[in-house]
């Protein structure tokens, strides 16, 4: 089966926005399959022993995305950008719940190394990463979105450029800058 083009996905999203239920039926398997690939890619890089499975992550994200009545989907990039944010929120909420249940303070670490192309061996947890990303977003929302798409959705640089409708050179530059900033921010620890 040939994957639908970005413009075809955009066409289905826009038709769905206008109440076309048939467009949603055509869109669902496409989106679900792409989300499943993204979730599997991300979960392969997650800490060992993670209790959230890729299938559960994609189901939760898929249900939340389909339930978005107030969103006017502009295009495929907009949809998958929100999907990356939802996956991030689901993972952060899962980690917060796990820690609350554990109450021992010995939370397992996730390495930023798991993101493609990051050379640092520094450990951090998903909550610390989320806090750093919130700070980055207030300074440069495009860089934050690139990190979310690369880290939480597992997209390559090329896929990120396509989804964000940016040149590959811009994505590479912003990715490098964001990685450097995140390393510096996270190395300061939680006291900053």
Structure description:
This protein is an all-alpha fold and about 190 residues long. It is built from eight helices and two strands. The protein has helices at about 5-15, 20-45, 55-65, 75-100, 125-140, 140-150, 155-165, 170-185; strands at about 110, 125. Helix 5 crosses helix 8 (about 170-185).
Helix content: 55-70%
Sheet/helix structural class: mainly alpha
Low-confidence stretches: 112-123
Strand order of the largest sheet: 1-2
> What is the number of strand segments?
2
The count of helical stretches stands at 8
Shape: globular
Measured by DSSP, the beta-strand proportion falls in under 5%
Distance between the termini: 50 Å
Rg result: 17 Å
What's the pLDDT, averaged over the residues?
77
SSE topology string: HHHHEEHHHH
Q: How would a textbook summarize the main sheet?
A: 2 strands, antiparallel
Protein topology:
Elements: H1 6-17, H2 21-44, H3 54-66, H4 76-102, E1 110-111, E2 123-124, H5 126-139, H6 141-152, H7 157-164, H8 168-187
Antiparallel strand pairs: 1-2
Identify the notable features of this structure and list them briefly:
two-stranded antiparallel ribbon, 8 helices, about 190 residues, mainly alpha
Structure described in brief:
The chain is an all-alpha fold and 192 residues long. The protein has helices at 6-17, 21-44, 54-66, 76-102, 126-139, 141-152, 157-164, 168-187, and strands at 110-111, 123-124. The protein is built from 8 helices and 2 strands, in the order ααααββαααα.
